[in-house]
Amino acid sequence: MKILLAEDDTQLGELIVYMLNKSGYKAEWVMEGGDAFYYASNSHYDVLILDWMMPNGDGVEVCRRLRKQGYPGAVLMLTAKDTVEDRIEGLDSGADDYLVKPFEIGELLARLRALTRRNYAPILEEEMTINGLVLNRNSHMVRLGSEEVQFSPREFQLLDLLVQNKGQVIPREVILERIWGLDSDVAPKTIDATVKLIRKKLDRIGKQDLIQSIRGVGYKFEN
Q1: For residue 35, what are the CA distances in angstroms to 16, 177, 189?
Q2: What is the CATH number of domain 127-221?
Q3: Is the pLDDT of residue 90 over 80?
Q4: How many CB atoms lie within 10 A of CB 125?
Q5: How confident is the model at residue 125 (pLDDT cuts 50, 70, 90)?
Q6: Residue 100 pLDDT > 70, yes or no?
Q7: Which residues contact 2 (CB under 8 A, 6 or more apart)?
Q8: Neighbours of 122 (CB within 10 A)
Q9: Most confident of 32-41, 48-57, 194-203
Q10: How far apart are CA 20 and CA 140, in angstroms?
């Protein structure tokens, strides 16, 4: 069973991931709402565990956005907010269950078992192929024939964004919002530097020219 945890408390996040893996789950962990939205939109998870309070998009906002675009999977909300009104807001955002902090790990595992007994969406493909390249969203590897290149999570997010919108120019503002979040302090040069790193890695497998710079606008992935 594959689970995405979105929790910005390092100590709690490490504990939950450790216990999930120890219990036989395959757990991935992000610390920002923007990353949670991206990974949930572009991969399959049996359950999303979303903390309510996170930077770059809280759990309720992330859940609401995912449901708005038709996300069908299970969502468990974690929060210290425990009033009836808070519970209603969390559930109305599209969450399937709600767990108040502090909680026992045993209860969290029981909630997960209950959620996964329900019928959710079928598993989506983790790989996509374009121009001979095979992109694996789980491993962040890009393969051409027998050649493989490893990308960092941020590099892969940007490459994946361009690939999904191949042939279209993606403005820097959109890249900033989707990959780093509008509230981040990332400078435009950071986007250019990340694209440069992606091109350098693609060059190892002879595909550096797939990403075009559109002067004064942004970037485009060639068909």
Answers
A1: 18, 11, 21
A2: 1.10.10.10
A3: no
A4: 9
A5: low
A6: yes
A7: 25, 26, 27, 28, 44, 45, 46
A8: 7
A9: 194-203
A10: 22
Q: How far apart are CA 76 and CA 94, in angstroms?
A: 10
CATH number belonging to domain 2-116: 3.40.50.2300
CB-based burial of residue 168 (10 Å sphere; 0-12 exposed, 13-18 middle, 19+ buried)?
Answer: exposed
For β-strands 127-130 and 97-100, DSSP reports them as unpaired
Put residue 58 in one of left, alpha, beta given phi > 0 → left and psi -120 to 50 → alpha. Answer: beta
- Domain ranges, ordered by start, for the chain: 2-116, 127-221
Question: pTM score, two decimals?
Answer: 0.54
Residues 6+ apart with CB under 8 A from 64: 93, 94
What is the distance between the alpha carbons of residues 39 and 30, in angstroms, rounded to a whole number? Answer: 9
pLDDT higher than threshold 60 for residue 121: no
